[in-house]
Amino acid sequence: MRKVCIVITARPSYSRIKSVLKAIREESHLELQLVVAASALLERYGSAIDYIRADGFEPDEVVYMILEGGNLVTAAKSTGLGIVELSTAFDSLKPDVVISVADRYETIATAIAASYNNIPLAHVLGGEVTGSIDEKVRHAVTKLSDLHFVSNEDAAQRIIRMGEDPATVFVTGCPSIDLAADVLKNKKEGFNPFNSIQKGVGTPFDIKNDYIVVMQHPVTTEYEDSLAQIEQTLEAINQLKIPTFWFWPNVDAGSDKISKGIRFFREKNHVPFIYFFKNLAPEEFIQLLMGSKCMVGNSSAGIRECSYLGVPVVNIGNRQKGRKYGTNVIDVNYDYNEIIDAIKQQTSNAKYPSENIYGNGSAGKKIAEILSEVTLSITKQINY
């Protein structure tokens, strides 16, 4: 029985790996080990652990590693603390392979802790291109990893050009597309986001009418501008007065600035048309996107899930710069007039055609099958 340890460090990481958790649990040759860490444990960032447990996944270890502050220094220190604590968790669990998810800054702690403990490391969603610190983290984790599960052929070729052995690179698709495909097939009738496990803040509105979804995170490399950037988006939504579901930011350097901007905006303005959420269950979030007229902000959900769902997207700023887009995306700068014009254009459109840029809904099963059969190794050399 091969022990596979998955580390979930943040709200978005769960949706990116949930179908893999399910597939590993169903694979007879694999034993699932689960570590929940970092902001996935914290109420202010949506307590992803509540949704994980509600889905029947009980963590084998929980690792607290986030320091307060929401700035560059605390991000670096939190990563260091994560290396310390995750090393202890891995020493206790003794997994045969560790899976690191995507490119958030906490994931490099997973990669270093596993590598330095001579545990084979598998990386899900490497090889892509974006802005922010995520770009450096993603490729650093790739070089620490022994197996690579990627979204598409572009990502695979990029990893191979980085010197990785082609035999260790597998095009599986993105596991979050598995959830989108499942929700499309099994749409929940009478869906009501206001009845979720975690309640939001604001006045509920009728979701049978048009609404949009906003999710905007700080860009670590533009840390000082975080407050000014969110103010432009807030002003755009305030002028449009479209019913809006607004999600609080991830725990990146600059998150406190964005949160401050949102709080000040709520105190200054009467906004009964905006409902604020910290988190939703992954499938609930997908269904919310499906019913929306448009997604606004800089979340990769706009690039991944929305391309598959055909949901129009207004992508703001540089956070997703370089990532492969669908035809559903319009890029704008941090300027409320540009944002308003783009939202008006996208909300006047019907749904876009579905595009399989990031997979077709079978990533979880593919990853589990490969993990049950592949030869594991911690020895690697650059392959050119």
- The name of the CATH superfamily of the largest domain reads Glycogen Phosphorylase B
The coarse overall form would be globular
Succession of helices and strands: EHEHEHEHEHEHEHEHEHEHEHEEHH
Number of domains: 2
What name is given to the CATH topology of the largest domain? Answer: Rossmann fold
Average the pLDDT over all residues and give the rounded result.
97
Please characterize this protein's 3D structure:
40% of the residues lie in helices and 15% in strands. It is α/β, with parallel strands linked by helices and 384 residues long. The chain is built from 13 helices and 13 strands. It has a 7-stranded parallel β-sheet, sandwiched between helices. The chain has a 6-stranded parallel β-sheet with strand order 10-9-8-11-12-13, with helices on one face. It has 2 domains: 184 residues, Glycogen Phosphorylase B (Rossmann fold, 3-Layer(aba) Sandwich), CATH 3.40.50.2000; 166 residues, Glycogen Phosphorylase B (Rossmann fold, 3-Layer(aba) Sandwich), CATH 3.40.50.2000. Helix 1 crosses helix 7. The model has no long low-confidence stretch (mean pLDDT 97).
